[in-house]
Write a structure and sequence with these properties.
Blueprint: E1 9-11, E2 16-21, H1 25-45, H2 57-65, E3 70-72, H3 78-103, E4 106-111, E5 123-124, E6 127-128, E7 131-132, E8 135-139, H4 140-144, H5 147-163, H6 175-181, H7 185-190, H8 196-205, E9 209-211
Parallel strand pairs: 2-4, 4-8
Antiparallel strand pairs: 1-2, 3-9, 5-8, 6-7
Length: 214
């Protein structure tokens, strides 16, 4: 089957660019319509004043621990290092995702064959050894989902492509789990629509600290 390379999709004052391959016009329009939202969300997440880079351990302790009359529990001192590692990894992956949108990659429409057969897979990224191909493959099932699901899936796959994330199913309420969560594509999927500050509070900060005794 012959494939065609679609016109370059230029976004955000021609700074961001991706292309399409093997996609008929309606699918291509869907892909084009999703890109501005992805670009905007990644810019928000990578903003140093309000995005994920802001939430360093000193910032968290100052604004969400000490400011609320809480103190790090002696039981969880090792989590300080773990949180710093978690924050650094998440910040790095988000930065790489934004850089990948700038440098460009290709969306490849695959139809209902191969991994896409049966409709259970929406999209995927292929690796050669430890190196991802510079492509996100989209199945027909992807285009049958609503816009929010398409955007969540796009964030998920972009984290695979740019950050080499994996799939992790387990608890984050221990050091090892927190580190794994920073490499979890489903974590980045949630960042598409969920408030990142609340995600950090709920999933990470809450179990690190103990209240002052009465």
């Amino acid at each position: 089957m012959k494939f065609f390379i679609g016109a370059l999709l230029l976004l955000s004052s021609n700074v961001y660019a991706v292309s399409t391959s093997g996609c008929h016009s309606s699918y291509k329009k869907t892909i084009e319509s999703l890109q501005p939202d992805l670009v905007q969300r990644l810019e928000e997440l990578n903003d140093r004043r309000e995005g994920i880079p802001l939430f360093t351990l000193p910032y968290v302790r100052r604004n969400f621990v000490e400011a609320n009359n809480r103190n790090p529990s002696p039981r969880y001192n090792s989590h300080n290092r773990t949180y710093s590692s978690f924050h650094s990894k998440v910040s790095t992956v988000i930065s790489k995702m934004q850089a990948k949108m700038k440098s460009g990659f290709t969306y490849v429409c695959k139809g209902n064959r191969g991994r896409c057969k049966g409709g259970e897979v929406y999209a995927y990224v292929m690796f050669l050894g430890n190196y991802p191909l510079n492509k996100i493959y989209l199945c027909e099932s992807f285009f049958k989902e609503d816009r929010e699901e398409q955007l969540r899936t796009s964030m998920h796959e972009l984290s695979h492509l740019a950050g080499k994330t994996e799939h992790y199913f387990g608890t984050i309420f221990n050091d090892a789990g927190m580190v794994e969560e920073a490499n979890n594509a489903y974590f980045y999927e949630k960042l598409m629509f969920n408030d990142h500050e609340q995600i950090f509070r709920r999933q990470v900060w809450g179990f690190l600290w103990a209240k002052f005794p009465n």
